[in-house]
Amino acid sequence: MWDTLHDLLNDEQRRVLAELVEVPAGARVSTLERLRRPVVKASGPQMERALARVAEIAALGVGEVDVSVIPPRRMAELWRYGMDGKATLIDRHGAERKLATLLATVVHLTTRSVDDALDEVPLIFRTRCQVGC
Questions:
Q1: How many CB atoms lie within 10 A of CB 87?
Q2: How many angstroms separate the Cα of 63 from the Cα of each of 29, 106, 113?
Q3: Which residue has the higher pLDDT, 121 or 55?
Q4: Mean pLDDT of the residues in the chain
Q5: Tens-place pLDDT, residues 12-38
Q6: In this structure, are residues 61 and 16 in contact, taking their beta carbons and an 8 Å threshold?
Q7: 60 and 107 in contact (C-beta within 8 Å)?
Q8: Model-level pTM?
Q9: Which of 20, 86, 87, 117 could in theory staple to 50 by disulfide, Cβ–Cβ 3.0 to 4.6 A?
Q10: d(CA 30, CA 15)
Q11: How far is Cα 36 from Cα 5, in angstroms, rounded to an integer?
């Protein structure tokens, strides 16, 4: 399974995914750790952050990789590990397993980030209307 997912990626996508587990200069956590965190408070600025998260994940360019050759249950196992595991532990795996895990995680985050942003909309309207609609 790891080899199959690894082979679906081109060199640029492999590079982008590998960089997710690195901690950028001046940052405290890896890009993966940051992207896994959803917005937690309903507000205008948080909605902007949620939409920026959606755009950043989409810009990675791997969310559209067709992973339908892998059974959904197996993909879920991989993305759960990618969502819960420490980036440093994921980085220690061999290239195929690491990139397969990161691919599954980013594919999941592509839809999850949109869902998280859409979940904010009713909360923001409800809060705004209680204040003075």
A1: 20
A2: 22, 6, 11
A3: 55
A4: 87
A5: 999 999 999 999 999 899 999 999 988
A6: yes
A7: no
A8: 0.84
A9: 117
A10: 15
A11: 21
How does DSSP classify residue 116?
Answer: H
Which of helix, strand or coil describes residue 126? helix
Residue 104 near residue 67 (C-beta atoms within 8 A): yes
Which pLDDT score is estimated for 30?
A: 94
pLDDT at position 133, please?
A: 53
d(CA 130, CA 36): 31
Residue 1: closest CA among 90, 82, 104, 87: 104
Crossing angle of helices 95-132 and 44-59, in 10° steps, is 160
Find the Cα–Cα–Cα–Cα dihedral 119, 123, 124, 127, rounded to 10°. 180
